[in-house]
């Protein structure tokens, strides 16, 4: 949208770019909400952004900001939760140290 405005494109090109940007908003909102719900199911205190703030951000900001910034925050939080879970699983696995067959006499 910004590039079409900068190069003084025709109204049809600007309208089609805005239309394409707006088409991508509902799937992004749905995906960000799904990530939010999954993160909250794992950790209820996760700092993700839910449906209502996502819709408010979409109305207040451009599709670029609401379509990239908000889902990026949810993905960063979900990545943190995955890393914490993997670290906890590794600690649990390290506590089990089998004895070798030679020492089992």
Helices and strands in order:
Layout: H1 2-6, H2 11-23, H3 25-42, H4 51-60, H5 63-94
Helix pairs in contact: 3-4, 3-5, 4-5
Quick overview of this protein structure:
This protein has 105 residues and is mainly alpha-helical. The chain is 74% helix and 0% strand.
End-to-end separation in angstroms reads 74 Å
Number of helices: 5
Q: List how many beta strands DSSP finds.
A: 0
Beta-strand content bin: under 5%
The protein's oligomeric status is single chain
Biggest sheet details? none
Work out the helicity level: over 70%
Mean pLDDT: 77
- The general outline is elongated
* Helix-and-strand structural type: mainly alpha
Gyration radius over CA: 23 Å
Structure description:
By secondary structure, the protein is mainly α. 74% of the residues lie in helices and 0% in strands. The chain contains five helices and no strands. The chain has helices at residues 2-6, 11-23, 25-42, 51-60, 63-94. The termini are far apart. The model has no long low-confidence stretch (mean pLDDT 77).
């Amino acid at each position: 949208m910004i590039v079409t405005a900068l190069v003084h494109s025709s109204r049809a090109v600007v309208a089609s770019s805005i239309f394409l940007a707006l088409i991508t908003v509902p799937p992004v909102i749905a995906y960000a909400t799904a990530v939010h719900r999954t993160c909250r199911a794992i950790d209820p205190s996760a700092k993700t952004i839910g449906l209502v703030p996502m819709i408010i951000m979409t109305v207040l900001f451009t599709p670029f900001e609401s379509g990239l910034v908000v889902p990026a925050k949810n993905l960063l939080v979900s990545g943190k939760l995955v890393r914490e879970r993997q670290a906890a699983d590794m600690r649990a696995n390290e506590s089990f140290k089998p004895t070798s067959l030679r020492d089992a006499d």
